[in-house]
Amino acid sequence: MNGYDFEYALRVSASVCTCVQFLSGLLICVNFVKKGKVSNESVVPFVTGFLSCSLWLYYGMILVNSTLVSVNAFGCLLFAIYIWIYYRYTSKKKRVMQYVVSAIAVIAWIVYITYTNVNQKQSKTVSSIELHQPQSVEKAAVTPLSISDTSIISSTTNDAIDRVGFLCSLTTMLFFAAPFSNLIHVIRTKNTESMPLPLIIMTFLVSAQWLVYGRMLRDKFMMYPNAVGCMLSIIQLALFVIYPRKSTVPLTTELHNHHNPYPYIKLMDA
After folding, report:
1. pLDDT digits 0-9 by tens, 128-150
2. Residue ranges of the chain with pLDDT lower than 50?
3. What burial letters (b/e) apply to 129-168, b meaning 16+ CB within 10 Å?
4. Mind giving me the DSSP string for 44-100?
5. What are the transmembrane regions (predicted)?
6. Taking the model in full, what pTM does it have?
7. Nearest 10 degrees: CA dihedral of 39, 23, 95, 106?
8. Counting Cβ atoms within 10 Å, is residue 218 exposed (0-12), middle (13-18) or buried (19+)?
9. Is the dihedral of CA 85, 90, 93, 98 positive or negative?
10. Which residues contact 40 (CB under 8 A, 6 or more apart)?
11. How far apart are CA 232 and CA 180, in angstroms?
């Protein structure tokens, strides 16, 4: 298998695993429908997921990377559906709308600021070239923009990539760090029963694949957060070795946790 075939296989594998990870939210939503209401679950993971996918979608559009665009477009759609289902069955609709509006405002602000800065830098660069170019008859035939168009686009695009990539990395690392909200409880009880092993393994596989893919593209904004994701997943997996599972909860509670892929995220009901 040559380099191109490996990269293609890695892109497909990482995309499929990520989509499967996104689909795990359906288990929570099915629970909402069965109960006919939202109990103590929070909408924050859904809103955060939508925000993260939206930023990565925008980042993929800047890079013109079809893999990032397709995967995160699918993620945006899924998280939007999850939020809608949550909104339908929760009694605190006003607070949910506040979270959603805030997330959309953040996305719109980032897109606006990035677009404005890119246009301003292009305008300043063109004006500077026009100022220093000798006035001659030849200037009418060859414009300043046609001389340095490639360098201007490259510079402004790199600025946009840096800004959006940093925010993508930040939101991804915050998402990966969420499971550690229950770390103290696990260490205190010396029991990993509340931690979902399949989801943690899936997170490790997804992070590892995107880490390798980011390494191949030499994209630090894909490498760093997924390296953190791999490290955090390994720490969580190590807890299963240090503190083996001890079923100390009733069967009904155990079944409920089995159908909840995020039981370890103890957040207030939004």
Report:
1. 555 555 554 444 444 444 434 44
2. 126, 136-153, 249-270
3. eeeeeeeeeeeeeeebeeebeeebeeebeeebbebbbebb
4. HHHHHHHHHHHHHHHHHHHHT-HHHHHHHHHHHHHHHHHHHHHHHH-S-HHHHHHHH
5. 12-33, 42-62, 68-87, 99-118, 164-184, 196-216, 222-243
6. 0.74
7. 160
8. exposed
9. negative
10. 269
11. 9
Least Cα distance to 206 among 19, 17, 71 occurs for: 17
Give the span between the Cα atoms of 124 and 154, in whole angstroms.
15
What's the token pair of residue 187?
A: 């260490």
Cα distances (Å, whole numbers) of residue 267 to 44, 53, 111, 239: 8, 21, 29, 21
d(CA 10, CA 5) in angstroms, rounded, equals: 8
DSSP state of 199: H
- 107 three-class SS: helix
**Residue 39: per-residue pLDDT:** 80
Helix spans in 133-250 (H): 144-177, 183-189, 197-217, 220-242
What sign does the dihedral 239-45-18-113 (CA atoms) show?
negative
In one letter, which amino acid is 128? S
